[in-house]
Amino acid sequence: MTSGVSKNKIKHFSQNSKRNAHLYCITIGLFALVAGLDPAGPLFEGMSPTDRLSPDDANFVDAIHTFTKQHMGLSVGIKQPVAHFDFYPNGGTFQPGCHLMHVYNHIAQYGITGITQTVKCAHERSVHLFIDSLLHNDKQSTAYWCNDINTFDRGLCLSCRKNRCNTLGYNIREEPLPKSRRLFLKTRARMPFKVYHYQFKIHFINEIQGKKIDPTFTMSLTGTKEDAKNLPITLVEGINGNKTSSFLITLDTDIGELLMIKFKWEGTAVWKNIWDKFQTIIPWTKGNRGPGLIVKTIRVKAGETQQKMTFCSQSIDNVHLYPAQEKTFVRCEDRFRQQERK
Fold first, then answer.
1. How far is residue 256's CA from residue 250's CA, in Å, rounded to a whole number?
2. Which of 266, 257, 251, 242 lies closest to 322 in space, CA to CA?
3. In angstroms, rounded to a whole number, what is the distance separating the alpha carbons of residues 291 and 30?
4. pLDDT value at position 197?
5. Mind telling me which Pfam families this protein's record contains (predicted)?
């Protein structure tokens, strides 16, 4: 942790017992700072602050929740907020690389104890996340204040205004609050765990009136440092009429400043047949391809840099998107925002 406290002043990194509560715990000084690493859930979920880890246990308390997935009403780690800042990597329920689908690999490697290894993987991820913050000073993970993981997955919480974000692990910004604050982030499956968070907001116009569609898209990003190709995009809700969709995309690498977006509707023969059918039913002007999706702009916010960008179709005269078609979007002037400023 920070506040001018050097790493060699970490007094304890232990499996502690607070009123018999299993807790990986890091303390600095005489309980000036306490970090709970996936504090125990069974028998302590819903208990009073005197019977579990709480903000009253030190001048500053933070907690990392990595295995709160419930089974038969119980979870290994506690889900409720127990600190000044409570971090929920990947929602806190389970962790990348620790999914139950990997239990067979663990059994093959460890025998019947492989089941235990699967559980330990998510529970002990909190420890590895903290260690990661010590080992990779140039790749600190940022988390964002949000109500729940569903809202976070829509990219709606990537704000650092008024201390709405903080750094996970050793370099956390110590700020005791009167009320616990829940922060969310995504991570990789292995060290370094840091990913880069982006919110994308796209305004669609579905020209087929009264017809709700559930298309699948892919997106390729071009940055000043690297490119990211064929990122799958699945919208939470279908598109009907005018609709603005917001979603979160994370990248394992720093692509630098975003310069260009290629957005593709992953159409199939079925979609093409639907479009051909509507084109024969509805009389369109000769030469037109018929109804499609109109995509004029894509707005992007980078969580780590807090930069906001707007991208417009490279072809100003053609903003339609059809199944199996890819369109290119480039940085453009956000006229709507300029009007708002006036």
1. 13
2. 266
3. 68
4. 98
5. Lipase, PLAT
Q: Do residues 233 and 286 make contact, with C-beta atoms less than 8 angstroms apart?
A: no
Q: What are the strands of the beta sheet with 21-28, ordered from one edge?
A: 10-18, 21-28, 33-37, 60-64, 85-89, 181-185, 142-145, 165-167
CA–CA gap between residue 8 and residue 214 (Å, rounded): 54
Residue-number span of the structural domain to which 206 is assigned: 197-341
Instruction: Tell me the C-alpha distance between 178 and 162, whole Å.
Output: 15
Q: Is 290 left (phi over 0), alpha (psi -120 to 50) or beta?
A: left
Compute the distance between CA of residue 320 and CA of residue 313 in angstroms, rounded to an integer: 9
Compute the distance between CA of residue 203 and CA of residue 319 in angstroms, rounded to an integer. 12
Is residue 62 within 8 A of residue 38, CB to CB? The reply is no
Given a cut of 50, whether residue 17 has pLDDT beyond it is no
Question: Do residues 239 and 101 share a domain?
Answer: no
| Phi/psi of residue 26, nearest 5 degrees | -120, 125
* Domain membership flag for residue 30: yes
Can you read off the two tokens belonging to residue 20? Answer: 């018999």
* Least confident residue range of 135-139, 239-243, 249-253, 334-338: 334-338
Contact between 35 and 26 under an 8 Å Cβ cutoff? The reply is yes
Residues 157 and 201 in one domain: no
Distance, CA of 293 to CA of 282 (rounded, Å)? 16
Could you read off the pLDDT of 173-196 as tens digits, one per residue?
Answer: 998 888 899 999 999 999 999 999
pLDDT-based confidence at 214, cuts 50/70/90?
Answer: confident
User: CB of 130 within 8 A of CB of 26?
Assistant: yes
What is the three-class DSSP state of 142? strand
The set of residues, in sequence order, having a beta carbon less than 8 Å from that of 147 and lying 6+ positions away, is: 157, 182
Contact present, 208 and 291 (Cβ < 8 Å):
yes
pTM of the entire predicted model: 0.81
* Domain end (from 132, 165, 194): 194
